[in-house]
Amino acid sequence: MALAGIIGGCVATAMLSGWGSLAMHVEFTSYVDQLLAVCLAEQDGGAACQVGGTMRREFLERSSAMLMLQLLCVLMSLVGLALIATRGYHLLVRRMGNALTLTGQSEATAETMGTVETMGDEFERVRSRLATLHARAAGLEAEAAWHRRVGEAQNQRQTTVTQVSHEVARLISDSELSAGSLRSALAVLGAACSARTVALALDARVSRTLGFAERIATYHQPLIAAQLPAEHPPREVSGRLVAGPGEFQTLLVPLCSGGVGVGTLIAEFEGTVRVDDAKVRLAETVARIAALALVGLSDSTESRRLALLEERSAIAAELHDSLAQSLGFMRIQLSRLQRQLDGQSPQPVSDDATEAARIAAELKEGVNAAYGEVRELISTFRAKMDDGGLVDAVSRAIESFGAQTGIVTTLGHDLGRCRLDVNEEFHVLQVIRESLANVSRHSGARFAAVDLRYDPGHEFTVTVDDDGSGFKTSATDTGHYGLSIMRERTASLGGTLEVVGGPTGGTRVRLAFRPKRLPSETEDTASP
Predict the structure, then answer these.
(1) Sheet holding 447-455, edge to edge
(2) Domain locations in the chain?
(3) Cβ–Cβ < 8 Å for 206, 294
(4) How far apart are CA 221 and CA 254, in angstroms?
(5) Which residues contact 332 (CB under 8 A, 6 or more apart)?
(6) Is the Cα torsion angle 43, 47, 53, 56 positive or negative in sign?
(7) What are phi and psi of 500, to 5 degrees?
(8) Tell me, which fold does domain 387-528 have in CATH?
(9) What HEC string does 73-103 produce?
(10) Does residue 59 sit in helix, strand or coil?
(11) pLDDT in tens, the chain (528 residues)
(12) Strand pairing report for 459-466 and 447-455
């Protein structure tokens, strides 16, 4: 529009200049014609008239040439202005319009919207459009920066999840699973999630089988732990955030693997801490790893226990089907022989018959003793070590011993962080059973005491005291092999066995050995 105005002004100036020259030519010609008309009317042929005629003639010639030149200049100016207008329109309107169209907003749209772009010239529209593009570029840059920050945060969270999962898996798998390794894994999770404390509430059955405490915590027990049930039914591994108790918030994630529930992971947070989905997913990942390890260890321990019991049951069956039956048959035959020898003749029996009767009686006594030993061995092999652990098994053995013999027997124990494997538990139980059997056979005691201890030096001791007649070395030479069997069991444990007089009389049997499994320095107290 401005270019069109400038071209129009130039054209108007050229036309006015031409019109002025033409008007001056007409006016001058009119004055000269009047002067010549006066000269002709007066018929004066003076010099003035001659000069006027000459001047009129020359003026006409030269003014005609000047008018031609001015007309030519006007035409050239018009042509130049037309060319300028055409080129300017092409450069400033058409090409700039095409450039504006590339910005994504058409002219019709801009005019319809009534924006500032349609209210100025092309340069103003370009400036406005550049400002718009700059604003859009700034918005896109801000959006890209936001996406970049979000992506970096997501990558950081994913990296944290990967690192925590790797560290937890390393702590659980690099060594034998224990309460200490579980506590270290929970500490890693707590540090990553900014939790006050993280704990595992184990199922009572799993706790008994593995010998772990039912609550394993990093710092202190969560307040909500006391409200959880002892049995944890299996359900899908998905965490849920609950409010309380108090000003805290608690995340609960079930420990479940293969449809087996083994407990609950508890993470307690301050009320001001934001628990987002990333922290929940991280806790669920750790819960899956812990559940897999606990279920695997529990199944392995139970499998070893069942295999051992099956093997001992098979041995007991073999003894029952072979040696026990043979001894029973010999006992019957010897009884018949003794009856025949006792009733051979009404007269006094000869010396040979008396000796035969005495030998038969001794054989019968020996066979009876052997038969009793075999029955006891069968009972020993069939002894069961169920989920209650060593303390429950010893308690049942003492209760059965007291009921059968009438000897008052007590049990004391302080096992602390001790963890025995299945074989160690079985050998300890059998040493206690054999010691009590010796009390009933040889001591004539009325009172017995069994004590189980585990000291900080990692030594397990079993002490059996009685108030009987005291220790006699000849007691080991009567044909009974109980003490030798106890020593064999002690050797298999790598320990020592002492049979000495008690501090207040009677007999003391003391077994001491170092368990194979080392407890963690921070492991909670749990019964083995």
Answers:
(1) 408-414, 447-455, 459-466, 507-513, 496-501
(2) 2-102, 171-301, 387-528
(3) yes
(4) 17
(5) none
(6) negative
(7) -135, 175
(8) Heat Shock Protein 90 (3.30.565)
(9) HHHHHHHHHHHHHHHHHHHHHHHHHHHHHHC
(10) helix
(11) 555 666 667 667 767 766 766 676 677 777 667 766 767 666 555 666 776 677 667 767 777 777 787 778 778 877 877 888 787 777 766 776 676 676 655 444 444 444 444 456 666 777 787 788 888 888 989 998 888 888 887 777 778 878 888 888 888 776 678 888 888 888 988 888 889 899 988 888 888 878 788 888 988 888 887 777 766 666 666 778 888 777 889 998 888 887 788 888 899 998 888 888 888 888 888 888 888 888 888 887 777 777 677 667 656 655 665 566 567 666 776 776 676 666 654 445 455 566 666 667 766 776 776 676 666 666 655 556 555 678 888 898 898 888 888 889 999 998 877 878 777 888 888 889 888 888 887 777 889 999 999 988 889 999 999 988 776 654 444 444 567 778 888 888 889 999 888 877 788 999 999 988 776 554 444 444
(12) antiparallel
Cα separation values, 135 from 111, 128, 147, 258, Å: 20, 11, 18, 57
Q: Cis (ω within 30 of 0) for the bond into 245? A: yes
Q: Indicate the SS3 state at residue 110.
A: helix
Residue 363 in tokens: 């054989």
Q: Is the pTM of this model over 0.70?
A: no
Question: For the chain, how many residues are written?
Answer: 528
Cα separation, 212 vs 218, whole angstroms: 15
Dihedral sign of CA atoms 432, 433, 436, 437 in order: negative
Question: What architecture is domain 171-301?
Answer: 2-Layer Sandwich (3.30)
**End-to-end alpha carbon distance in the chain:** 100
Nearest to 159 by CA among 195, 196, 194, 192: 192
Q: Which pair of tokens denotes residue 329? A: 């048959």
Cβ-contact 382, 315 below 8 angstroms: no
